Protein backbone atom coordinates (compact mmCIF):
# COMPACT_ATOMS: atom_id res chain seq x y z
CA UNK A 1 0.00 0.00 0.00
CA UNK A 2 1.38 3.37 -0.96
CA UNK A 3 0.56 6.63 0.68
CA UNK A 4 0.31 9.66 -1.57
CA UNK A 5 1.61 12.97 -0.40
CA UNK A 6 -1.11 15.58 -0.27
CA UNK A 7 1.36 18.43 -0.41
CA UNK A 8 4.87 17.08 -1.05
CA UNK A 9 7.76 19.19 0.10
CA UNK A 10 9.90 20.80 -2.52
CA UNK A 11 12.99 18.65 -2.69
CA UNK A 12 14.92 20.89 -5.08
CA UNK A 13 15.47 23.29 -2.18
CA UNK A 14 17.78 20.74 -0.56
CA UNK A 15 19.84 20.52 -3.73
CA UNK A 16 20.20 24.30 -3.89
CA UNK A 17 21.14 24.46 -0.20
CA UNK A 18 24.04 22.08 -0.88
CA UNK A 19 25.18 24.17 -3.86
CA UNK A 20 25.09 27.40 -1.85
CA UNK A 21 27.03 25.71 0.95
CA UNK A 22 29.62 24.58 -1.63
CA UNK A 23 29.97 28.14 -2.94
CA UNK A 24 30.46 29.53 0.56
CA UNK A 25 33.05 26.87 1.41
CA UNK A 26 34.94 27.41 -1.87
CA UNK A 27 35.02 31.17 -1.37
CA UNK A 28 36.19 30.75 2.23
CA UNK A 29 38.94 28.35 1.17
CA UNK A 30 40.00 30.61 -1.68
CA UNK A 31 40.21 33.68 0.51
CA UNK A 32 41.69 32.14 3.66
CA UNK A 33 43.96 29.28 2.55
CA UNK A 34 47.42 29.95 1.11
CA UNK A 35 47.65 29.19 -2.63
CA UNK A 36 49.76 26.05 -2.18
CA UNK A 37 47.15 24.53 0.18
CA UNK A 38 43.96 25.47 -1.68
CA UNK A 39 43.58 22.17 -3.53
CA UNK A 40 43.88 20.16 -0.33
CA UNK A 41 41.35 22.33 1.48
CA UNK A 42 38.97 22.20 -1.49
CA UNK A 43 38.95 18.40 -1.13
CA UNK A 44 38.16 18.76 2.58
CA UNK A 45 35.42 21.23 1.70
CA UNK A 46 33.92 18.81 -0.82
CA UNK A 47 33.86 16.15 1.90
CA UNK A 48 31.92 18.57 4.07
CA UNK A 49 29.53 19.15 1.15
CA UNK A 50 28.89 15.40 0.92
CA UNK A 51 28.00 15.27 4.60
CA UNK A 52 25.79 18.37 4.33
CA UNK A 53 24.02 16.85 1.31
CA UNK A 54 23.18 13.69 3.22
CA UNK A 55 22.04 15.62 6.28
CA UNK A 56 19.83 17.99 4.29
CA UNK A 57 18.14 15.23 2.31
CA UNK A 58 17.70 12.99 5.33
CA UNK A 59 16.13 15.92 7.15
CA UNK A 60 13.45 16.17 4.45
CA UNK A 61 12.35 12.65 5.40
CA UNK A 62 11.38 11.61 1.89
CA UNK A 63 12.67 8.36 0.47
CA UNK A 64 11.45 8.77 -3.10
CA UNK A 65 14.34 9.95 -5.25
CA UNK A 66 16.80 10.15 -2.36
CA UNK A 67 19.77 8.84 -4.35
CA UNK A 68 19.04 11.17 -7.28
CA UNK A 69 18.76 14.20 -5.01
CA UNK A 70 21.97 13.41 -3.14
CA UNK A 71 23.80 12.71 -6.39
CA UNK A 72 22.59 16.01 -7.88
CA UNK A 73 23.65 17.84 -4.73
CA UNK A 74 27.13 16.35 -4.70
CA UNK A 75 27.72 16.71 -8.44
CA UNK A 76 26.51 20.32 -8.37
CA UNK A 77 28.72 21.01 -5.36
CA UNK A 78 31.69 19.57 -7.23
CA UNK A 79 30.97 21.78 -10.24
CA UNK A 80 30.42 24.92 -8.14
CA UNK A 81 33.61 24.36 -6.17
CA UNK A 82 35.50 23.53 -9.36
CA UNK A 83 34.44 26.73 -11.11
CA UNK A 84 35.29 28.86 -8.11
CA UNK A 85 38.61 27.01 -7.73
CA UNK A 86 39.44 27.64 -11.40
CA UNK A 87 38.71 31.32 -10.83
CA UNK A 88 41.08 31.47 -7.88
CA UNK A 89 43.69 29.50 -9.82
CA UNK A 90 43.55 31.92 -12.75
CA UNK A 91 43.69 34.86 -10.37
CA UNK A 92 46.80 33.42 -8.75
CA UNK A 93 48.37 32.67 -12.12
CA UNK A 94 47.87 36.18 -13.49
CA UNK A 95 48.50 38.11 -10.29
CA UNK A 96 52.20 37.55 -10.12
UniProtKB/TrEMBL annotation:
Transmembrane segments: 12-33, 39-60, 72-94
Keyword terms: Membrane, Transmembrane, Transmembrane helix
Protein name per the record: Uncharacterized protein
Source taxonomy: Bacteria, Bacillati, Actinomycetota, Actinomycetes, Micrococcales
